[in-house]
Write a structure and sequence with these properties.
InterPro entries: GT87 (IPR018584). Helices cover about 65% and strands about 5% of the residues. It has about 400 residues and is an all-alpha fold. Strands 1-3-2 form a 3-stranded antiparallel sheet. The protein is globular.
Amino acid sequence: MRALLRRRSVLWPAFVVAHLALAASNLVPGPTGNSFNDVTGFYRVWVDNAIAGAGWPAIDQPWVYPIVALVPMLIPLIGGTAGYGAIWLLQVSLLNAVAFGVLTSRNTVPRTRAAWYWLGALLALGPVALGRLDVVSVALAVLGVVALATRPWLSGVLLALGTWVKFWPAAIVLAVVVAAKERWRVLVAAVGTTIAIVAISWFALGARFLLSFVGQQSGRGLQVESPFATPLLWAAWARIPHLAVYYDTSIYTFQVSGPGSETLARIADWSMPLAVLAAMLLGLRAALRRAEPRFATAALALALTVGFCAFDKVGSPQYHAWFAVPVMLGVMVSARRFALPAWLVLASTVLTQLIYPWLYDAMLALNPVMLAVLTVRNALELAVFAWALVALWRAGSTGSTHRRSS
């Protein structure tokens, strides 16, 4: 059976079936089709309006995304307004195919395991795995971690590009800089790529709002999916006065308001940098004590990536697409040692799909079963973060070199 699963004649049909299923779930009207609204309702409108003269995001006006995110949003316009969604799905599926092809170009057990894991994670997340901008950054990050061992300069370029699409791949760059042997080549390539993007954006495009994405999240409240909002949702279910779920029309998301919400939002603002700092210090400790570099890099990348979500006041479902990448890196290093976080991530991702898009309305209505599902999902995020910190501590304590699992 293992030999069969390693065959490309099995891997590629599985890839095609998975992407056809995910594409169909976005295009078919209904609960899952509505999850495609970010693509057809926001991305398309942004670039349509920009071309019509209303101003370019990140260039003429503030934007929530880094400027390179405009590229994958512009390409589907070749299909016109009516075909925008279909071309988007084709575009991201082809990008995933490139990443999948590079990942499986060497028919080894670690890479095969990582490939199957990625397919499982995509299906576990459901429609938003293809129906959000995050899919582009994830594919670039997969290419980046695959290139890390053999072409670190290319890894740095790819991870930097991913970061300028959606900021989270910076977690992998930070992990590499702290723990990997290839740190300098990756860092120089990433910095060089960033300088090129900034220079082109600033001098050629006149991007006055190039860095506007950095502060776009600071003023928002607690999104309902955030772990910090969970106790308030339970309090609202218990009919504590003045607590409620509402739709914020300025950022197009559901948030929770009432007593304690502003305090928890401020706590969230401080919690993420503190979580990142804790992970970085443990990663640095592991590196200084000569922990196995690839394992320490994967564990630190997982801690930072999950920390970006678990200690955020947003917590959107597409963030769970990120988690698969550091897990894949860990699986390629040691499948046995990364087995627990791999399963925990898959479990949390399945619950994320259950929450959105399938039963989102029930959660917004404060259905206690869905609140329990959300609570468990958020607890799993924190459990993965805790596992990564413990793994870094133990790696730094033993200072031993671990062989890569095959």
